[in-house]
Amino acid sequence: MEHNLKGKNAIVTGASRGLGEGIAKVLAEEGVNVLVNYAHAGSEEKAKGVASFLVSTYGVKSGVFRADVSKEDQVPPLFDEAEKILEGPVTLLINNAGICPHVTIMDSDFKSWKDCMATNVDSLFLMCREFIRRNVPRSCGGRIINIASQAAFNGSKNGKTHYSASKGAVVSFGISLAKEVAKYNIFVNTVCPGMLLTELTAITLTDEEAVKKYNQNLLLGRLEEVAEVGRMVAFLAGDAASYSTGAVFDVTGGMMSR
Ligand code: NDP
Questions:
Q1: Judging by beta carbons within 10 Å of its beta carbon (0-12, 13-18, 19+), is residue 155 exposed, middle or buried?
Q2: Cα of 17 from ligand 1 centre, angstroms
Q3: Inside any domain, residue 253
């Protein structure tokens, strides 16, 4: 079955690199117009590079917008710009932006905890609220896909308690929001990736040797590719996922098997 995504409009938060870039590419390959969001001035060129790749390779509409999605005043302008660049309502929202502080509770200041919660959780509240407020009066429905992590369920013994807690919140936020908005034909699902080689994991996967060692503990013997998560997102955004909402999808290569 076709995903039937051609011509739909999406915002992918944190798409200047890593998983967000990978998701943006898979969606664009399906014909989705994608607004590439990023937060930091230094990432502008990278984000523009992603957007021009989408336009030149897949012929979709794309553009970039810098917004810190954890800041209330920066979220509505992000949607305004997306609707302008993509020339229509945004009916696919991929909440991917995230950070992962590496610090034990013993050594952590309060700021590190608050920053993690703001980027990984406040952003969901703000982005989803804006999406719902805009789309309910239009009766256009929509799909929200939030990126959590296996850490929400597995935790970590080496200083990722803030992160694990924030991703646990992502999971339960999605379950409850799905119940609130199903009547508007808005679906909310959560995707849990396993371990990808991105800037976020560079502190653990420092070199080839570290990757090799890590791979030995993985059921499938290798790290995950960003496109493998992207394909799950495309499935959830498309027609084939017509009876899935409030669900948590495991793309961890067996890290969450039960
Ligand atoms: P990266 O660090 O490679 O990329 C993070 C992206 O998020 C960047 O585009 C960054 O923008 C953006 N970003 C950070 N803070 C904000 C903010 N406040 N507002 C808007 N954008 C922001 O991370 P990954 O690609 O690895 O991670 C993406 C998501 O996947 C995260 O939610 C992460 O928790 C999740 N995940 C990752 C796993 C992994 O193994 N890598 C495993 C499981 C889940 P800028 O360039 O401007 O900094």
A1: middle
A2: 8
A3: no
